[in-house]
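Anyone able to model this chain together with adenosine-5'-diphosphate?
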Amino acid sequence: MASLYKMPISNLSGIGAKRAELFKKLGIKSVGDLLNFYPRTYEDWCTVEKIEKLQYGGMCCIKAVLGTPVSDSRISGGRIVSKAVVYDDTGSLQILFFNNKYISSMLKGGTEYYFYGRVTSSAYGAQMISPTFSPVSDGVKIHPVYRQTAGLVSRTISNAVKQALSLLPKTINDPLPEQVRNIFDLCGLREALNDIQYQKNKESLEKARKRLVAEELVVLNLGMRNLREMSRTQSGVIIKKSFSKEFESLLPFKMTNAQKRAVSDCVNDLTTKSTSMNRLVQGDVGSGKTAVAASVCYTVVKNGFQAAFMAPTEILANQHYQTFKKLFENTDINIALLTGALKESEKKRVRQELSEGKIDLVIGTHALITDKTEFKNLGLAVTDEQHRFGVAQRAKLLCKGENPHLLVMSATPIPRTLGLIIFGDLDISVIDELPPSRKPVKTVLMNSIHRKRIYDFIKSEIKSGRQAYIVCPLVEEGELENIASAEEYAAELMLREFSDIPVGIVHGKMKSNEKDEVMGKFASGEYSLLVATTVIEVGVDVPNSSVMVIENAERFGLSQLHQLRGRVGRGKFQSYCVLVSDSKNPSTLARLETLCKTNDGFVIADEDLKMRGPGDFFGERQHGLPQMSIADFADTKSLELSQKIADYIIFVYKDIRCDELRLLRAEIERLFERGGQNNLN
Ligand code: ADP
Ligand code: MG
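re: yes, here you go
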């Protein structure tokens, strides 16, 4: 089976270089990857309806003959429409496909097919747009439906999966040892791979799913344990004395009690335990996590060690650097910035000085964990906005010293069962109090008809000295609809609505130095309005901004919206968040209403989890874990089961490096590689 992961997908018939590219977009490169590409759902084609009796609007299945061959024509924008008429003994209906040049070769005139899709009415009578289909001679009644990408229909995927399965030998070695499968009532891998694709009945599907989910989570579980083991060791860094009181005198404000508690938890770890600190500081957006981290850095540096502070984006690293520089202005602490965007010569200088120990505190991005960066005596590694980092990156930063202390900070509340997997035995401090005199952000949901009012409001706030953000969702190429891309949107605004107001724009495609320049100008007040994609989501701190408008708010997850909203309401001004959405979907609107009702990140995360569609809550890899192919992180029961299985495996086999677990180990490596994180060595 392992060899199938090395076989490129273009070895399969019907898959040339072009299609292989499309498959790659779905994360499928090898034949083996196809075996782990599971259906999103299944269509039941058991009830076949007559064309004459069809009701408009519903999904249905018909059995019909293709009368005419498919005809392709071009419409505006170079798009292709493929049309054909199909009939049964009661009537006929038109079928239409858009932008799929393969359709004409896939459907043959005179052949009888099942077509499954939604029936709509048109000037030419009944029609089905982009139905799924299969020749009646195939006899398949329950059809897997896959996650698709433009140009690649479910049927093509299904064909490829079928071929991949046929290449799989009758018996394969199972990564889960038989003993484990027996005890936890899990079916064999070969059976599961087959049954998850071709459902014989509900029971066989459930069994297959249970087995595959369990395996995936066990693999994750063991992989994480392994990582943790690497970091839970005797510390080589001895911190004798706390300097947190001294630090407080540097701050321009008084720390909240919650901040003080978090600092003293950390200092206690540092000064009284023989093992390294492993602590997560969790606090809602704006709760003041930076000051806590700064305090811990201060104590470590004052004890003669170096500290490294890693942020997920250049923008954020830069901002923290400015903050820290100001904070430590009148101390003897030597601070440096290290990001990928610096000039080569500058990076070289910083790295040189880090290795010589001339720099006490370095703030940076991933540039900190490349092989080139060496420390003289790293005593503390801090990662900000932990959910944006892969767990492996955290581990890599730790490898830069002799078991340095670890502090991770996160604003994303994580359900307990999942938290156990991600953080394991990490100790947790919660900052459950916002700095005083914060006014909760007022949030409203508005239809885009009221755009004029929204703009007028922005203008009035800017007039009274404030600043504003407008956030547009990321738009993938080829996505049409009415979704504003940040670039176009900003251009439009600058030309028309805000022609007399300085507008800055940041989006993901810009180079980091360009982004930094714009952010710098926004922070210094040179720009009054910033149009941005979600690159500003994490951490950015411009306390003078008081309005955040989020376009197409329905496209974001609730927790993500909450993070975005956290960019305002950071100073003494009353702040506002306007969610713009024209969605008519009641559950979407209810979701957005939640944000209008509460500012509590934990409540929002909870609601998000309750109301979310599958995979929604942890969309955008908010957790730093590898991408799962079947397991769902909100499925508490499976998470708990996997924990039990993993415990059992460790109990029976002692060490995951033993021979019986060879295949399971290979799976761990594959999972972490898929998330761009390879860390089992
Ligand atoms: P986050 O927890 O989201 O990282 P920050 O650390 O960026 O929050 O803090 C948000 C803002 O609140 C910053 O402008 C910071 O200077 C300010 N701040 C932090 N702690 C306090 C405090 N105790 N009193 C007043 N302002 C504070
Ligand atoms: Mg922060």
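The longest helix spans residues 202-231.
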